[in-house]
Amino acid sequence: MALLQISEPGQSPQPHQRRHAVGIDLGTTNSLVATVRSGMAEVLSDEQGRELLPSVVHYTSDGVSCVGYEAAEHNVSDPLNTLVSVKRLMGRGLDDVKTFGGRLPYEFAADDGGMPKIQTVYGPVSPIQVSAEILRKLAGRAEVAFDDMLDGAVITVPAYFDDAQRQATKDAATLAGIKVLRLLNEPTAAALAYGLDQNESAQDERTIAVYDLGGGTFDISILRLTRGVFEVLATGGDSALGGDDFDHAIANWLRAQMGMSDDLSPVEQRILLEAAKFAKEELTDSAEVQLEVLDWQGLLTREQMHSLIDSLIDKTLRACKRSLRDAGLGKSQIGDVILVGGSTRTPRVGEKVSELFGRDALCSLDPDQVVAMGAALQAEVLVGNKSGDDMLLLDVIPLSLGIETMGGLTEKIIHRNTTIPVAKAQEFTTFKDGQTAMTIHILQGERELATDCRSLARFELRGIPPMVAGAAKIRVAYQVDADGLLGVSARELVSNVESRIEVKPSYGLAENEITDMLQASFTHARGDMQARALREQQVEADRMIEDLLSALYKDGDALLDEDERHCLRVAVEELRTLRESTTEHRLLARQIDSVAKASEAFAARRMDTSIKRALAGHSLDEIDNS
Predict the structure, then answer these.
(1) Given the residues 25, 336, 380, 513, the one annotated as active site
(2) pTM, whole model, 2 decimals?
(3) Which is the most buried residue in 206, 221, 337, 579, by most CB within 10 A?
């Protein structure tokens, strides 16, 4: 009798049912795609055996002419139509692009939504379109390797990408025809690739720091690993800092050595940047490099390069220290430090990171490949080829999410460094009698006032039953999915009218803005709290003034004599004057209390009159029965 067959745990019992999934690292300088074969992650190469794909797209008047290595050949000859480093533009607005200081030689124009578009000979193209071409090329490489269609992909993003930048990445994948299984933070993917979840004993808890410095972005993430569960304790970084900035620092040095002006042509910019990139890579293994650029010849030593890039590396180290503080940990409590990203090949980076954490960093895996490999392992789970019971990923959001309330205040609903996916809700109410609509203004940031936070989206809830101010209950729910993308709903609990929005801002935060927002929240903490307290009392004063004037208009003549009406009107005017003039919230609070006491008798008479009116014409038996 033949033996009955049983499939491997988590595997399909029929080989033809295996699904094809990949992990994609969409990088600033290079991109790559990986998959899992025989339980091991491996990077897929092209027909020439090349694993990296330069993140470069070249346009002609007919459209995209080539992507990758072939496109990179046009860097110097046709710089305005050869698009590089577009990851830095993902999820950003036209004003944000101007902060790059002319580093990108393109001409920009904004579409109706504020997204920057790059002017090419083919016409204006968005960063999302350019990224889609790169993703399409990688997906094609995978389909050739599988000899079949792709079922889905896990695409990695910097941990410090905000909601707009993540959405832009997802939109690019959709445009490329790729089903996104998940957006995965790059540091978490790197930890997966190192197999740190499988190297621990069942009882151990380990804390890991992942230092990820790529071509255009930097991340530091502090992760806790317990029994296969990756929990991100804190994250930090800069979505506009990377190896490109090393290149620009060296290029600026070259320009100074050559006596060239700041006003370079696009071709001259590209020539200097190509020379700078060559020098940086040569100095990885050599102590000095001889350069020939245009008509200039000279020598650049490793020590000279260190002096040019140390300030940039120090910015990353300051972010590391902030993340340690956010996680509530000291350097001695970090078990492992992992180096990720092609820019960590620069020896100076590894030296300074090891010095900061007091231990040698892990760099046994190719730093260019490690993120894509980790994404491939996660894709294998999400597509259904492997059980995910032994691995759970818990990422965090980098900035708080909140809502604007009366007085321009920010009420935080989900705080920064909250583990995602997460759903939280809070109840709010109306400000005016008979209010039938409410504007929901969604904010991101750490400050107390809405004007100091970033606006993500607005939508309206209409159809609220007319009630007295404060009687309606509107439940506002925020939900952040595993990709870090936000959805918001608002529902009135009596009528069940509801409105919702998937937050898809067209552009993201400006360079260094996340870091600046966090720093500002600490710097201005005392002033923000005082401003919030004043705004809260101003809102209370406005409510009291409006309510009291309305009551006087309706019932003042019937329930009060002339002196009483005069006293209340004087009290209202004094409160109004103080509300407009004072910056001291305690003084305003005392005046509000004074007006409340002065109007107590009037409020009691109105209540008595209302009760009498409600009971008129009813017997005690009817009231008891009701």
Answers:
(1) 25
(2) 0.62
(3) 221
More confident residue, 149 or 201: 149
Number of neighbours of residue 468 by Cβ within 10 angstroms: 12
Spot the catalytic one: 186, 244, 268, 404. 186
Q: If you average pLDDT over residues 423-441, what whole number do you get?
A: 84
Q: Decide if 87 is catalytic.
A: yes
d(CA 106, CA 445): 31
CA distance 147 to 421: 35
* Domains parsed from the chain with CATH numbers: 16-242+308-395 (3.30.420.40), 243-307 (3.90.640.10), 397-508 (2.60.34.10), 526-615 (1.20.1270.10)
Residue 25: active-site member: yes
For 309, the enclosing helix (H) or strand (E) is helix 302-327
Considering the chain, what percentage of its residues have pLDDT values greater than 90?
Answer: 23
Q: What percent of the chain has pLDDT over 70?
A: 85
In this prediction, residues 421-447 reach a mean pLDDT of 83
Please state, in angstroms and rounded to a whole number, the distance separating the CA atoms of residues 521 and 323. Answer: 15
Per the prediction, the chain carries an average pLDDT of 82
Separation of alpha carbons 322 and 311, rounded Å: 17
What pLDDT is recorded for position 309?
Answer: 94
Catalytic residue, chosen from 78, 87, 171, 352, is 87
Catalytic pick from 212, 219, 244, 452?
212
